[in-house]
Amino acid sequence: MSASNHSSAGASSPSAPSAPPPPAVPKSRIPFCPACGSPTKLAVPDGDEKMRAVCSSCGRVHYENPKMVVGCLVEHDNKVLLCRRKIEPAYGLWTLPAGYLEVGESAAEGASRETLEEACADVEIVSPFAQLDIPLIGQSYIIFRARMKTPSFSPGSESLECELFALDDIPFDSLAFSSIIVTLRMYIEDVKAGNIKFHYCTINKRIGAGPSDLRSFDIDNHLAVRETSAQQSHWSSIELVMGEGAFGHRMASGHICGRLFKLLLEL
Ligand SMILES: [Zn+2]
């Protein structure tokens, strides 16, 4: 059905005036059909608006959706547990225990499992701390605050070492991912302000930033919900806050429902 890709401009010659490069043909990131193994091609299926990987043989449409990464911010004696990665990417750099959510488990279960795998720490979830979307790479992080059931940890097979860091000693120059930088900055700010909030934000890489340039990003759509209840784990009373955010951005206030929740919006 598609038009032939053969050029009608004739054979090219090394001495010919340089012609504009042919338009880049987008390639599917699902090159072969998971169902039958045949090559896929990019096409817009009927009723759809986006290019999808469509099997050239069986016609199945394969969708590429974001992946969810789940992890734990393990608190112990005013310190947090970090793991130094034994695997690529970011070999040798520090991270929170986190990884891809598996089918069949909840986000909280996945975060606990990753913490057990990477830090051999058996934890209980305290509360959700942050959801961070990274649209450019199709990832969404959910990070939970957690505590160790017994104060015991050691490096798992994917970690070189694990260590508890005081907040002032966190190795920000040796962190593995922008998501971890953002999470820990927000956490430190909250702890120092005496009120730990739940955060949502989008991490957008700046134009021209390379994959290893962890600091060229913007934080957008930052929402934070703070508890005023004495019971931190009981999400019943949440108050609006105004002021400087984790990244020095101006905050403005807003009300939602006027009842339980008030939100902090980063402009
Ligand atoms: Zn197929």
TrEMBL record:
Lineage: Eukaryota, Viridiplantae, Streptophyta, Embryophyta, Tracheophyta
CDD domains to which the protein is assigned, alphabetical: NUDIX_Hydrolase
Name under which the protein is recorded: Uncharacterized protein
Matches recorded under PANTHER family: NUDIX HYDROLASE 23, NUDIX HYDROLASE 23, CHLOROPLASTIC
Top-level taxon: Eukaryota
Transmembrane stretches, start-end: none
Biased composition (Low complexity): 1-16
Location of region: Disordered: 1-25
InterPro entries: NUDIX_hydrolase-like_dom_sf (IPR015797), NUDIX_hydrolase_dom (IPR000086), Nudix_N (IPR029401)
Pfam family, one: Zn_ribbon_Nudix
Classification via Gene3D superfamilies: 2.20.70.10, Nucleoside Triphosphate Pyrophosphohydrolase (3.90.79.10)
